[in-house]
Design goal:
The structure holds two protein chains of two kinds.
Chain A: E1 4-7, E2 10-13, E3 19-25, E4 32-38, E5 45-51, E6 57-58, E7 67-73, E8 76-81, E9 90-97, E10 106-108, E11 112-116
Parallel strand pairs in A: 2-11
Antiparallel strand pairs in A: 1-3, 3-8, 4-5, 4-9, 5-6, 7-8, 9-10, 9-11
Chain B: E1 9-13, E2 18-23, E3 32-38, E4 45-50, E5 55-56, E6 61-64, E7 70-75, E8 84-91, E9 105-110
Parallel strand pairs in B: 1-9
Antiparallel strand pairs in B: 2-7, 3-4, 3-8, 5-6, 6-7, 8-9
The chains are: A mainly beta, B mainly beta.
């Protein structure tokens, strides 16, 4: 199956700094990628839909100025958490759909654990 | 997107079949049912999907009722490695293709 990677797998940063998380589709092209956030013992919450070459679409309640999304190529989307605070500590997961294969499922990355101190 | 409801948790003996139910009573005619699972601290893994007919692959079987208001994921011979949270999702096969995750079922396979 198609593979999605994320980098870094975990990161610790100080409060007030910004952190960038990368999501890559390794063997397929994805015009659309999705970003989720997951708190401990909770389900995945969709944050935004990342569209190649255009602005991301954010879910209600998600601050677009705090969670900057850039989808500059068909294989890479980035999520930047700006001015991070301890409450932003979470597990961030991306997914992508392989539009060329005809398959209907989304492929998920392994996730990035962010800890803000 | 249609909302799904699943039991919070289930236990299953190793080697036995695990039957995980999902209710999606507001599903529309063109919405697919997808199943994913998430093992602790990993990204979700695709299992199977279907529209109307029952489906089977190397991992599981998916049984969808005739009225499509509910479905059951069947793991025929559960192993300890099947311990995970299982999510049932319904999605329209057009537009943004986004998923809305429910609470999922925490399956624990017991030795």
């Amino acid at each position: 199956g198609a593979v999605v990677s994320q980098h870094p797998s975990w990161v610790i940063c100080k409060s007030g700094t910004s952190v960038k998380i990368e999501c890559r589709s390794l063997d397929f092209q994805a015009t659309t990628m999705f970003w989720y956030r997951q708190f401990p013992k909770q389900s995945l919450m969709l944050m935004a839909t990342s569209n190649e070459g255009s602005k991301a679409t954010y879910e209600q309640g998600v601050e677009k100025d705090k969670f900057l999304i850039n989808h500059a190529s068909l294989t890479l989307s980035t999520l930047t958490v700006t001015s991070a605070h301890p409450e932003d500590s979470s597990f961030y997961i991306c997914s992508a759909r392989d539009l060329t294969s005809g398959s209907r499922e989304q492929y998920f990355g392994p996730g990035t654990r962010l800890t803000v101190t | 997107d249609a909302k799904t409801t699943q039991p919070t948790s289930m236990d299953c003996a190793e080697g036995r079949a695990a039957n995980l139910p999902c209710n999606h009573s507001t599903i529309s005619g063109n919405e697919y049912v997808y199943w994913y699972r998430q093992i602790h601290s990993q990204g979700p893994q695709y299992i199977i999907h279907g529209l109307k007919n029952n489906e089977t692959n190397e991992m599981a079987s998916l049984i969808i009722t005739e009225d499509r208001k509910s479905s059951t994921l069947i793991l025929p011979h559960a192993t300890l490695r099947d311990t995970a949270v299982y999510y049932c999702i319904v999605r329209v096969p057009s537009g943004t293709y986004k998923y809305i995750f429910g609470t999922g079922t925490r399956l624990k396979v017991l030795a």
